[in-house]
Amino acid sequence: MNRNTSKPFSANEKEIERLLKENRRWKERLTFFKEEITFLNLYLSAEIFQKDVPNLYERLQLFYDDLQNIKLECLDLTTQVHNHRYDIEGILECEDISCEVFYHQEHLKLKQKVQDFAKKFRKFKSEIYSYTGPLLRRTSNEP
Amino acid sequence: MEKKTHNYRYIEWKTPDEMHFSSLQWKSELNFIKDEHRFFEDMLKEYTLPILESQLFSRVKELIEQLNLSRKDLKLLENRVAQHINKLRELLENLDEQREGREYRKEHKEILNDFIHYSRQYKRLKRDIFEVVGKAIKQQKQKRLLA
Questions:
Q1: Quick check: B137 contacting A, CB < 8 Å?
Q2: Cβ atoms within 10 Å of B126's Cβ, excluding its own
Q3: Beta-carbon separation of A137 and B126 below 8 A
Q4: pTM above 0.95, yes or no
Q5: What was the pLDDT predicted at A143?
């Protein structure tokens, strides 16, 4: 659900600046997600887990495969956010209100997509943490 | 890092329902960070052998201290958010709504500012953890290849 402050949109420079700022924030967020994905890639394929855990490698492989899909989704969303910047800048050139409304709606849709992705990624990270956290190799107990 | 204070004028237009929704989002994010703290702490404390071998031990000690500080800050912020959520319930029942409403919005802005500041600091800490643990994992992999 989109809970944006319900102020009606009007295409003036101040509003465009607000949309651009929001767009920059999404970009920063997605850039950080990419860094997290890179780390998780390394983490899941490192030899840091306890030995002799049933199905450990199968589970890690499943996480790894899901992570590759998340990575692709993140890249795709980054491209959409990048391209959307030009749509926002183009709003000022709209000749009628329906054109402005269309691009504003696109903005809200993309906002929702970024939020949904963030939620999905957070859930995925929680699953990795709760499964792998207790399985980290305890140096003091294990050779 | 210096904490920038923003005015967030759009808060003036937010309905109580929207402010409540934001507060619940803060609460949920802070809950997630709490779990993440636990995970990172386990990782830094338990994954010691490669870290010792990679000579990153003192750096890891610093990160564990920073995690502890981050956890304390989180607790404070979490309490403020919880009180803020409860206050809205009281506010909706209060007759002197206008004055209380102004104060509530002011508090909402202050928490928003602190939440954003906290998130930025925490992101930096995560970046440092990724860098150090990433280095240790890579060095461990190289050693195995050369062994």
A1: yes
A2: 19
A3: no
A4: no
A5: 43
